[in-house]
Amino acid sequence: MRVPLSWLREYVDVPASATPEDVLAAFVSVGFEEEEVVGFELSGPVVVGRVLSFEAEPQKNGKTIRWCQVDVGPHNGPDGEPRGIVCGAGNFETGDEVVVSLPGAVLPGPFPISARKTYGHVSDGMIASARELGLGDEHNGILRLVELGIEAEPGTDAIALLGLDDVAVDVNVTPDRGYALSIRGLAREYAHATGAAFRDPALAVSPVAASGFPVVVDDASPIRGRAGVAEFVTRVVRGVDASRPTPPWMIARLALAGIRSISLLVDITNYAMIELGGPIHGYDLGRLRGGITVRRAAAGEKLETLDGQVRTLNAEDLLITDESGPIGLAGVMGGAQTEMGETTTDVLVEAAVFDTVSIARTARRHKLPSEASRRFERGVDPLLPPAAAQRVVDLMVELAGGVADDLGSALGATFERRSIALPAGFVQGLIGVDYTAARIAETLTTIGCDVEETADGWRVAPPSWRPDLTDKWTLAEEVARIDGVDRIPSVLPTPPSGRGLTPAQQGRRRVANGLAAAGFVETPSFPFTTEQQNDLHGSASGEHLPSVRLANPLDGQAPFLRRSLVPGLLQTAHRNVARGATDLALFEVGTVFRPLPGVDYGTATIPPGAVRPDAETLARLDASIAPQPRHVALLLTGSVAPKQPGREAEPAGIEVALDAVRVVAAAAGVEIEVAQGERAALHPGRTGVLSVVGASGTSTVVGYVGELLPAVADDADLPGRVTVAELDLDVVLSLAGDRVTVASLSTFPAATQDVSLVVDAALPASELRRALVEGAGELLESVRLVDDYRGRGVPEGSKSLTFALRFRAPDRTLTAAEATEAKLAGVALASSRHGASLRE
């Protein structure tokens, strides 16, 4: 909200010595965020000049310029001769008073003015237009003071005459404080910050009762059970002269407030809106057909708004209509049919209060934000419409020569000030400052509340312009804000012991840190993908499974939420390979979205943002959200070790991916087993299924590892072999439970032995390994598969698996006999369970 200081000073005592920075500091002290200081960015000499004569001179380029002699009073030449100025505009006559920028002046841009030769003359200055002075965007020729109703002697300072010496401060107004989107609101806040005297502009007018104009509210489809309009006041002004110019002081103030001047009648409504905070609309009464009806739109209705767009209306849109149909989107923008224009002589002034949610939805639905909707959706003072309408009437009478008529209307319910219980001691306990009871009551009274002392505290009735004060917490915030947030002590909370992370958070962090330490780079990606990618990577067989489709996707080609992390890693790898980075080791930890078959997600009705949902609504919303487990996935391509003298490059294959899987297992605190498997996107024979054996001995599948099919890698524009792995990290960590493994360094030597067992070729090595571990007992420290042999000496349909076993006792040096006994115990269990035999 931009606040011109001259306007602010009309309603609050701002010291003449106060700088814009001082004013901003005052606003900051009561909770507003400063943005910038805004001015017209021009400097003199810029003066009034009178055109004494001019000669029209056609040019070879088809343009006609005027060689003007301009009287600028004390700024004329040494002997009083007028200034010679070249001007390309043709909208002025001899005797007109204009604005002249003399050499040394700087106009907005910045555009410095100097005497320069052009079109065969030395132009000793420039006759300025409104746009060149920063008074608007229109460029309809040079600015003629007679059009502004101004008479001034040549040489008069035009900067002060036009109000261009004013400056505005810009503050950020939060959505809950709509009352501050006005000079009225911010002048009151400045008074709170400094103690300066405040004069309410709404009390400076005396509303006149009017009646006779037919207005009907027919809201058959209220939002949230509330009618779309709470107050609707109309007044009529007759005999206005729409051709009169807007006074320069009003143009300057509107420009500083960020609103361009359009015409006198429209400028008056905008001026009153900025001043009081209540949006006001003016209709050409001669274009209205009958009275006004406020109603919801019918399906298929259309309306041409003031911006020239024909809009198809929604059944929730609140309309202003007459007998001809819609004439305005209530609280958002008026219609072109009843727009005030050059021929307007009689004006119907409307000041209303519309429902915040209804206006916000309409503005967003039609992508039509406006200064009016910005205020209505934040809440307008329900007692303001009579004063706002009267302010517009007074200005139209004063500036447009109109006459106030008795015709009008006033609809609306009586405003009742709600009362809030504020217990004694609550503010002190919440804010942490020892406020006295008198200071609390004084502060709340200062902001306009009615404060009544009770046996256990106060009953507080907020003022009509503060709809944000709804409970004891917001009242406590106001006490802290007005008394000074600098009084609130800064006390750091005592941190709990440990890192403050949950076991699951700690586990995820260990996994990510472990992969990063192993040389992988974490590459988070957007969770958006295609349905085809979800089917390919989100299921083992490539079958179609349900996916969550976004109603408003960022990318129309990827409207689904991912079922797997692999598509994102493939996109990241593609971008890197395209830029020359061919040796990649990537990983991502993130959520995937896996809706259950047969469950209809995303259909729950979203409640309005201004209403707190009940427990049943929250449960329904939770049920409409698909499961979102966290996964960890990795991708390898290229080489893990580059080519060096005497050594070939080491390609990144499935062996490296399995090592990374073991890193994840170690970080999570589980043991992961690998068995041969199949997946639609992975190479047959080079795909492994990852499982974790829980405390109960049950094996749970947690993921997969393998090489992508060449066709899948080609579709991703990735050369060579690409290895991927993906695990359900939530399941992995849940299987780890609260187990913490602490390994100590033993001082006793280990005993190592190998064993080669012949088993059926279809038996997974992990099953045989599990039997060896279980049979060998506690002395077995580690077991590692070192060879898989199939050939001469091994029966057809069988294979020989060789394991390296390491034994160690915690309290003694093992003998060879003890190690052999433990090994044979493991072989015996493997033989009985899987028919394994020692290879001779």
From TrEMBL:
Recorded GO MF terms: ligase activity
Matching Pfam families: B3_4, B5, FDX-ACB, tRNA_bind, tRNA_synthFbeta
Protein known as: Phenylalanine--tRNA ligase beta subunit
EC class of the enzyme, as a word: ligase
Cross-referenced InterPro entries: aa-tRNA-synth_II/BPL/LPL, B3/B4_tRNA-bd, DNA-bd_dom_put_sf, Fdx_antiC-bd, Fdx_antiC-bd_sf, NA-bd_OB-fold, Phe-tRNA-ligase_IIc_bsu, Phe-tRNA-ligase_IIc_bsu_bact
Domain of life of the organism encoding this protein: Bacteria
Binding site for Mg(2+): 468, 477-478
Family from the record: Belongs to the phenylalanyl-tRNA synthetase beta subunit family. Type 1 subfamily.
Cofactor binding mode and count: Binds 2 magnesium ions per tetramer.
SMART domains linked: B3_4, B5, FDX-ACB
Alphabetical list of SUPFAM superfamilies matching this protein: Anticodon-binding domain of PheRS (SSF54991), Class II aaRS and biotin synthetases (SSF55681), Nucleic acid-binding proteins (SSF50249), PheT/TilS domain (SSF56037), Putative DNA-binding domain (SSF46955)
Subcellular location: Cytoplasm
Domain FDX-ACB residues, every copy: 746-839
UniProt source species: Microbacterium marinilacus
Keywords: Aminoacyl-tRNA synthetase, ATP-binding, Cytoplasm, Ligase, Magnesium, Metal-binding, Nucleotide-binding, Protein biosynthesis, RNA-binding, tRNA-binding
EC number: 6.1.1.20
Cofactor (UniProt): Mg(2+)
PANTHER family: PHENYLALANINE--TRNA LIGASE BETA SUBUNIT, PHENYLALANYL-TRNA SYNTHETASE BETA CHAIN AND LEUCINE-RICH REPEAT-CONTAINING PROTEIN 47
Record bears the keyword Hydrolase: no
Catalytic activity as recorded in UniProt: tRNA(Phe) + L-phenylalanine + ATP = L-phenylalanyl-tRNA(Phe) + AMP + diphosphate + H(+)
Stretches assigned to the B5 domain: 415-490
Segments forming domain TRNA-binding: 40-159
Subunit: Tetramer of two alpha and two beta subunits.
Primary residence: cytoplasm
